[in-house]
Amino acid sequence: MNLAAEPKSNKVSEAAPQAAAVPSTQPAVEAVEEGYRTVGDFTALKPVMQARKVDVFYGDNHAIQRVNLDVGLNEVIALIGPSGCGKSTFIRCLNRMNDTIESARITGEITLDGENIYGRHMDVVMLRARVGMVFQKPNPFPKSVYDNVAYGPRIHGLARDRVELDEIVQTSLERAGLWVEVKDRLEEPGTGLSGGQQQRLCIARTIAVNPEVILMDEPCSALDPIATARIEDLIDELKQNYAIVIVTHSMQQAARVSQRTAYFHLGKLIEVGDTDEVFTNPRHKLTEDYITGRFG
Amino acid sequence: MSSTPGVKELVARGIGRRYRNERLFKAAGLGALMIGLGFLAFFFYTLVANGYTALQQTRILLDVKLDLAVIDPDNTRDPAVRATADYQRLVRDAMSALFPDVKARAELRDLFALVSPGAGLELKEYVASNPGAVGSTISVWLVADDDIDVLVKGHVSRDVPEADRRIDDRQLAWLDKLEQEQRIGLRFNRYFFTAGDSRDPELAGIWSATIGSFYMLLVTLLLSFPLGVATAIYLEEFARRNRWTDLIEVNINNLAAVPSIVFGLLGLALFINAFGLPRSAPLVGGLVLSLMTLPVIIIASRAALTAVPPSIREAALGLGASKMQMVMHHVLPLAMPGMLTGTIIGMARALGESAPLLMIGMVAFIVDVPDSPLDPSTALPVQVYLWADSPERAFVERTSAAIIVLLLFLLVMNATAILLRKRFERRY
To answer: What is the mean pLDDT of each run of 10 residues along chain A (296 residues)?
Structure first.
């Protein structure tokens, strides 16, 4: 691992002049920061969340550096990159899950509909209701399927009565493509479902709160190919209504489900662009090396 | 150096030694287990062998004339009058009737000593529940003195020289006569389970100590469980990790290892001397035991909280649950079995504790059953200590029996802990 990492870090320092060699790709917003600049356009067509100059430190460890990135409505943005590159760190900044890590420190600005989510007026509970998250390992509560989905609406008071709650649960399960499979076992524990069903249950649980953004941190890494395909179809449908950020280790998955792709490398956002562009015509050497399988 | 040995040869060279080491280790482990089990078996054997006889006590069949002149001379039929009558005199009369030859004062005293002072009380109870029997003559099995009891049970030998015996030859002859007439018998020892302590072993029981222990554990549970769980939740879920929380953590771990008698001294200084709470009261005992149990519960509860997977917390937080909701809805239910187990084990330790109670005066001689946690009381392990210290031979079997009862309580508590863990343990 270390042997592979060493030459990579050298490449980053080489990367800066190379990126500067293509000035035509620079967006209007300043993405230029000391040491490196992101190649490609990091803005979205209909931006919902905007990260500007985001740095994250875990103690002395500079986990991500000067990241600028937009998350747009009706599109899936895939974050790819080798392990430890900061893509999970970044996604966890978007709903402030990094708050739970005491040593984590975040600078820069991330906005949701123009509001700074790290600002004084942003309540973290409110934020997480608006920015839902699906985790790597399916983590249903050890409660019934129904209670899993109903939990979010219950704590936020989204349903006035049982009928409304039933409705929310059913719609959420339907939209997660799980209703047919579980409609007769709503009272059985969610932990008794198969891995793929559990992950779809977690997605149903997330969309039951009706968030604006859904963050998915490697949602398929614990699933078999068939379950993965179902989740990917689901992601494709969900983008009709939500802005979706997905972290993935699978480049095929990124190519299949996303419209935009961001390539992270050692805490730096190296390249962003339309998925087709990034995969067929990567402009940065590191991106090219990664997606052609030379490392990672 | 024609050929270096291959992997196969190298492995083969050491393999015998490796298996031998494993066999030796297994044998050593089994040996250690056997030694432990041997001691345990010996312990249980001596306890049961010594203690089972306490379940029975010797009684003497007497034909008692419930003389109206003694019980209720004015025939008032007033229970209050009848309760104050000299029933022991009726017992004495019945004994005299069996041995009409005994006339001398000293001899009579020795004769009456065969029957327990509790026999009169038994007659009083009989009259209270059967008022109509007054005036008639009844045959009742009345409780014998403890010296007779140990003799009948064979704990004391008749071959001992008379001077070293508590029962002299004359009393032995009377006893033999009673046995010939089949007036001596072993009956269930109800005093052991229903009475408080007594100077007369045949009338002594563990009920008051049991109630004292119960009140004490109640106070301990009510105090230490909520406090301990709240502390654990705060430290584990809310407090920031810094020098202060580290210091607190070290201190909690240290407190768990402080000798219990130190907590007793603290309780004496704080609760009795400073706060002026009553001595010998289960309330104070419970407070002291809470101090002792708290660190145990905190440590167990923190371990239970740590064992809840972080993915559950993330799931709850990710949905927008507040930290409090995350803890109350998800983490606490999952940690509860572990917390309860830790609590019950802490309570079991508290139940078996005697040293701190000696410091706060719970070592007192308590006959009455306490009505509240403020009444003077003793506790089961202290009762064991008191009886073990008593000179009467009859207390030996009662000590063992009290220990058996104490162990049964502990067994039930620990079994409950295991059951709770098995029943509510949820996989995630």
So the answer is: 39 40 41 64 89 91 90 93 89 90 89 90 90 92 94 92 94 91 92 92 93 92 88 91 93 92 91 92 88 76
CB of B425 within 8 Å of a chain A CB? The answer is no
Q: What is the CATH number of the domain that holds B212?
A: 1.10.3720.10
Q: Where in the sequence is the domain holding B129, given as residue range(s)?
A: 57-187
**Chain A residues 82-101 within an 8 A CB cutoff of chain B:** 95, 97, 100
CA distances from A212 to A131, A187, A204, B285 (A): 6, 28, 14, 58
Task: Name the CATH topology of A2-291.
Answer: Rossmann fold (3.40.50)
B77 touches A at CB < 8 Å? no
Say whether residue A102 is in contact with chain B using an 8 A CB cutoff: yes
Interface A:B, Cβ pairs < 8 A: 67
What ipTM is given for this predicted complex? 0.81
| Residues in A touching B330 (Cβ below 8 Å) | 141
Within this chain, do residues B213 and B272 fall inside the same structural domain, yes or no? Answer: yes
Between CA A291 and CA A282 the distance in angstroms is 9
Give yes or no for a contact between B64 and B138, defined as CB atoms under 8 angstroms apart.
yes
Q: Identify residue B365 by its one-letter amino acid code.
A: F
Same domain for B159 and B216?
Answer: no
Question: In terms of domains, do B161 and B218 share one?
Answer: no
Structure tokens at A18: 């190379």
Contact: B318, A132; criterion CB under 8 Å: yes
